[in-house]
Design goal:
Strand content: 15-25%
Strand order of the largest sheet: 8-6-2-3-5-9
Helix content: 25-40%
Largest sheet: 6 strands, mixed
Number of helices: 5
Radius of gyration: 14 Å
Distance between the termini: 40 Å
Number of strands: 10
Length: about 160
């Protein structure tokens, strides 16, 4: 899939015109933050896991890590990330551009509570140089998330 596929998907929400295609890479949290002129925490990274035999996406703030105990308590197994090949095949987006929009049928999307600290966040849009700024309610609607979860460790606020 591509940025164009994501734009078509986002038309249903009236958001397609807000997709930004960047002149530089946004394939990692740090690169995206630099390209967008924002703090890394506001990058909504989309992580791909296998739960049972099904792929899921977990969208979390850019400054968090998976808390293995919380993840296991919620999904009843250890966190097992998909390989880049599995991500492309099962989710439909390449690593670096994985987003919760226009994913393949059957892929469940979860939003992590770490995102709720922000008014707006920046998820990717299907490529390693794209993003969109969304409010949390817009992200919730456009991702068609199954539910909110609390499976990450948020760094201490100083």
């Amino acid at each position: 899939m591509s940025v164009e596929t994501v734009k078509e998907y986002l038309q249903a929400f009236g958001l397609e015109s807000r997709v930004r295609e960047l002149p530089e890479s946004s394939a990692t949290v740090e690169l995206a933050a630099h390209a967008l002129g924002t703090q890394p925490a506001r990058i909504a990274k989309t992580l791909s896991f296998l739960v049972g035999e099904e792929p899921i996406l977990l969208v979390a703030a850019g400054d968090v890590k998976i808390d293995n105990a919380k993840y296991k308590a919620r999904f009843h197994q250890k966190a097992k990330m998909l390989t880049p090949e599995q991500v492309l095949e099962w989710v439909g987006h390449p690593v670096g551009g994985v987003c919760p929009f226009a994913v393949k049928e059957g892929v469940q999307v979860y939003l992590d509570e770490s995102l709720r600290r922000f008014t707006t966040v920046f998820p990717a849009c299907g490529s390693g140089n794209s993003a969109i700024e969304l409010t949390i309610p817009e992200l919730e609607a456009a991702s068609r998330c199954r539910e909110w979860v609390d499976v990450c460790k948020v760094p201490s606020q100083s």
